[in-house]
């Protein structure tokens, strides 16, 4: 038996042990066929069945309506930052963007290279500790879409509401909170997510696109970046990232076995409540985010004295609590507690935090 | 022990059993760290060491000069078909392309969307059974680059020579023959290869770029498609396909253990000689490609009567000889005999072919 650590990495992040065990068992010989999934033609009956099963499980988990296509793409969310305007923003149009932190700013900067961007609201006014309410947004009269990031992985800032912008399609970067709690897909025009947090290995991006938004790509859009081309070819215009797609399918199966998104949301709520409670109950630890915008998935926190950061991290690692160091732009600590990070991991972290505080406060 | 079949798939293709065994052993717990490689931050010391080791091993295997960058990208060769003109073809420039089959034609069609393309030569004149000699090429006076595919995976047509176009940078799609035999990297401006034949799993592309070709991208080039951005960030502008990169590194290590590219080239020569000899010695099997353009990696062949295709494939599968069906555009059979397909696999195939011929001729 391997000893598995508690892994709080922001991404690539922990995967369910059961998923890795199954991948391990099937590595050399998938279901007696004598070859690995990564050695299969993407056009083979066996692989197509794996790919379709993964898509169907994701559709079941999120209750994706039939007028949405599910795409399995590559290049990470960063490539989507260009694909979105190339597919959805007419050259003479304007797109609204909400700035809530580092990732939404990156999306804004890339979109500005391709057209008119209106930053309708920015959390900068609140030092990125709160999300501006919709009453304060300066929306365009006729935006091609509104883009926002539902969860900022670095800042630890998450929307607990869905913007209401009428007929304007909502485009949302859900990289770090997709599948963590229920959503109503029909509220969105385009949902996209890099896989490496709640879905699977890095190198895969899942996009869920409302069909009426397909076919609007600019003539200058590279074929591989055109959503309609991907949709028309079942994400197999060329060879997709077959093994990552398969692993994502195993994660979807695992999530169904856990009871689906509603069940995992309950666990996620318990986890984040436990951790924020521990932070708030102490003068030794702190998290600056306003309560209704605190992320369920990424919990940054500081120690009262940052000279204690190093011993805190060393002690954590000695206990098998890995990757708690905060992003360099924020400092301090960050615990990413995605679906595959169990309640036992958060309990171990909270116990260690109490112990460390007792010793050093 | 798993029973491993002989897998002649054109791609995603067979991987060395030893590589899969190592990946299997390390799946849940890499070197006692308590987590899988696919759960590691790409910025962690452990993962950076894995990534750098893979790059160095590839540099050793191909003796890549220090003025070349090695990039680990995504999107397959098809995304490169757009990236190449976006990075290397000025809007008022012209690029020369050689058409030798389906893949080089796809590269041409995509490039035409971004600028002036001169198809300097086409194998169409020979029904794609031979490669036009360089004396017959109609080169542009001042091409930004010359593009060709060193091996056509579907047609089974391979250059056994390197074009000499003076100062014009050579851009080559080596997806299906990289690492199969020695090359002189310094003859090229840009070498690129989808990983899923001789490198690793699909979803990864390796590009080897001469440094003076960096920094020429058009302003309309998406950031993620800009070679200079990838080079300046060690292929980590955003999260790369970490697990595929790691697996590719295991393949590079394995290839070094086999004695490197020169040693594997000897095996590859023996394999292809054995298979073509079996085809040529018989009136029952045929391959139409002119001898000096026959691919070492992809060997298409036909049976005298295509009514026998089905029984041939069924008999092959019963013997654990998988994925011999030819591409739908060519018909017949195709045996892809990449590095990871051993001499024993080709011997088993040739034995089966003789047996089948005896029964059905």
Give a description of the structure.
- 2 copies of one chain form a homodimer.
- Chain A is 34% helix and 16% strand.
- In chain A, α2 packs across α6.
- Chain A starts with 5 loop residues before the first strand and ends with a helix.
- Chain A has 9 helices and 14 strands.
- With 361 residues, chain A is α/β, with parallel strands linked by helices.
- Chain A folds into 2 domains: 18-258, Aspartate Aminotransferase, domain 2, CATH 3.40.640.10; 260-359, Aspartate Aminotransferase, domain 1.
- The model of chain A has no long low-confidence stretch (mean pLDDT 97).
- The first copy, chain A, is globular.
- In chain A, strands 2-10-9-8-5-3-4 form a 7-stranded mixed beta sheet. Chain A has a 3-stranded antiparallel beta sheet with strand order 11-12-14, covered by helices on one side.
- Chains A and B meet through α1, α3 and α6 of A and α1, α3 and α6 of B.
Features:
7-stranded mixed β-sheet, Aspartate Aminotransferase, domain 1, 361 residues, alpha/beta, 2 domains, 14 strands, 3-stranded antiparallel β-sheet, globular, homodimer, Aspartate Aminotransferase, domain 2
Compute the number of strand runs of chain A: 14
Mean model confidence by pLDDT of chain A: 97
Helicity of chain A, as a percent range: 25-40%
CATH superfamily annotation of the largest domain in chain A: Type I PLP-dependent aspartate aminotransferase-like (Major domain)
Oligomer: homodimer
Number of helices of chain A: 9
- Tell me what the CATH architecture of the largest domain in chain A is: 3-Layer(aba) Sandwich
Class from secondary-structure proportions of chain A: alpha/beta
Shape of chain A: globular
Strand order of the largest sheet of chain A: 2-10-9-8-5-3-4
Order of helices and strands of chain A: EHHEHEHEEEEEEEHHHEEHEEH
Strand content of chain A: 15-25%
N- and C-termini, Cα separation of chain A: 38 Å
Radius of gyration of chain A: 21 Å
Largest interface: A-B, 68 and 68 residues
Largest sheet of chain A: 7 strands, mixed
The overall number of domains of chain A is 2
Would you identify the regions of chain A where 5 or more consecutive residues have pLDDT less than 50? none
CATH topology of the largest domain in chain A: Aspartate Aminotransferase, domain 2
